[in-house]
Amino acid sequence: MVNPMHVRTESATQIVTDIPARLDRLPWSRFHTLVVVALGITWILDGLEVTLAGAVSGALKESPTLRFTNTEIGLAGAAYIAGAVIGAVFFGWLTDRLGRKKLFTITVLVYLTATAATAFSWNLWSFLLFRFLTGMGIGGEYTAINSTIQELVPARVRGWTDLVINGSFWVGAAMGGIAAIVLLDPAVVAPETGWRLAFFIGAVLGLVILLLRLWIPESPRWLMSHGRIAEAEAIVAGIEARTCATAPQAPLPTLTLIPRRHTPLREVLDTLFVTYRPRTLVALALMSSQAFFYNAIFFTYALILTDFYAIPSNLIGWFILPFAAGNFLGPLLIGRLFDSWGRRPMIAGTYILSGVLLTATGVLFARELVTASQLTICWSIVFFFASAAASSAYLTVSETYPIEIRALAIAVFYAIGTGLGGIAGPWLFGVLIDTGSRYSVLGGYLLGAALMIAAGLIAWRFAVPAERRTLEDICKPLSAV
Which terminal residue of the chain, N or C, has fewer Cβ atoms less than 10 Å from its own Cβ? Predict the structure, then answer.
């Protein structure tokens, strides 16, 4: 039954609406599941891309056409991250101005075109270009998708939902691992053909995503903030009808807005770095530390196995599967604690514990106390907690800033954090691995651990207790009266 008690009054300058309250009171339904699947698959794509890039590193080194060095493998990872940084900022800016739905369609088109083109790379520079463009598509996806999911999912389950969606990166990682096992097996596919076919998997998934997203509406919150209240109410009424929402027993809280078409850059900067300075400190710490932690280790994971344990490149996928399982199970099993125990203790706890466990694993590796299989088990334990920690960074950024700049805020912190941690990490670890010294690699692990622990301490002090609160309660819209 559609809620008959909604509020909509307009004047020349003001809108009074209860759309946010109506969205947050909805029961979980097939609509929300569709949103999670159609939009959350972005993380599966990113996991697929990162895993394939790591798994095919051995094949790229052995390719008669490319013949990459370890440093060039690291450079390719950095090119992908650089593209994601630029794509996030550019498409994030457009997402706040033009709408969520337009941009999550455009970005997936950019992604699938570029990842298919990667299969036709003929030298280092062509490979770097196509990986850069692929990253642009994924970076744009992060901003458009994170903001849309936050604005459509009810507040009481927003934390767990967001963490599981971000954790689905590792479903893609598992898919990439399985694909690598088949496509990099010379008995099945010629090595020079196998790594090229691997990149077509993402393009095929991209086409499926386009079809699924035809059923996802524009964010009613975005429409509301831009004065398109009639469209917003029609979408919410349709969702209420599909979810069989019952009428509230009392009038819902309302919000008064003065709609705007865009937010001036000066106001954006003032909001991020003056009004919400403590939140910005938390966002920068969480995003940059997890970006270094993840990208440095995962982009070079296959190199560790091939260079220090002599694992053949066609077997790397078997080691990635348990690693991916630990990463996905973390957000899935402990994600609900972010909504019940609270954001601050869970964010701080997972970050600090990840740093401690990484230190222990690095010492075992440096002292040659673990085999390749045992190292994989250690990584699975470390990233059980680190995956939940990294996912909470995206959750924090996307729920603690005003709706008018939500996508751009996600983009800014993703870009700064990833630029500081994600680009430098793969390059640094590529250089450290090239030294052939386990203790050099340990130095990189200790740096990553220190960054995670520091970020956890900052979160304990300054993180916002956002659990089970509406987005508008956590942070009033800039256009609110």
Answer: N
The H-assigned helical ranges of 168-218 are 169-183, 191-198, 200-213
Cα dihedral 196/202/207/211 (nearest 10) = 170
Rounded CA gap, 27 and 177, in Å? 36
* Residue closest to 201 by CA, chosen among 138, 85, 118, 107: 118
CA distance 14 to 69: 60
Average pLDDT (171-196) is 76
Report which of 227, 256, 225, 232 is spatially closest to residue 480, judged by C-alpha positions. 256
Write the secondary structure of 31-49 as one string of H (helix), E (strand) and C (coil): HHHHHHHHHHHHHHHHHHH
Asked if residues 466 and 329 have their Cβ atoms less than 8 Å apart, the reply is no
Q: What is the pLDDT of residue 468?
A: 92
C-beta separation of 339 from 393 below 8 A: no
How many Å apart are CA 232 and CA 333, to the nearest integer? 34
Q: Which pLDDT tens digit goes with each residue over 243-261? A: 877 777 778 889 998 888 8
For residue 4, pLDDT over 70 is answered with: no
Please tell me which of 44-58, 171-185, 202-216, 257-271 the model is most confident about, judged by mean pLDDT.
257-271
| Residue indicated by tokens 């973390």 | 330
Name the residue among 326, 7, 314, 86 with its Cα closest to residue 182: 314
Mean pLDDT: which of 60-74, 319-333, 427-441 is highest? 319-333
Q: How far apart are CA 317 and CA 329, in angstroms?
A: 18
Strands 15-17 and 255-257: what pairing?
antiparallel
The whole-model pTM stands at 0.84
Cα angle 320, 292, 144; round to 5: 85
CA dihedral 353, 359, 360, 365 (to 10 degrees): 140
Buried (b) or exposed (e) across 74-101, using 16+ Cβ within 10 A? bbbbbbbbbbbbbbbbbbbbbbbbbbbb
Planar angle of CA 419, 96, 115, nearest 5 degrees: 50
What are the residues facing 208 on neighbouring strands? none
The tens digit of pLDDT for each residue in 385-413 reads: 999 999 999 999 999 999 999 999 999 99
